Amino acid sequence: MTQSPAERPWQDRLYETLRSNHIDLFVYVPDGGHKILINRSLEDASATSIPLTNEAEGVPMLAGYHLGGKRGALLMQSSGVGNCVNQFSLVQTGNFPFLTIVTMRGDFGEQNAWQIPMGQGVRPVMEAMGITCIEADRPDEIEVCASAAVNMAYRSRQGVGLLLSQKLIGAKAF
Amino acid sequence: MTTPTLDRKIAVPLLVPSPEDYLIVSGLAGAARDAGALTNEAANTYLLGGAMGGGLPMGLGLALAQPERRVLCVVGDGDLTMSMGALSTVGVSQPGNLAILCVDNGHYGETGYQVGHTSMGVDLETIARGSGIQTTHTVLSEDDIAKAARALKESNGPVFVWLRVSTEEPPAYKRNFDAVERKNIFRRALLSDDELSL
Question: Has domain B8-196 been given CATH number 3.40.50.970?
Answer without folding.
Answer: yes
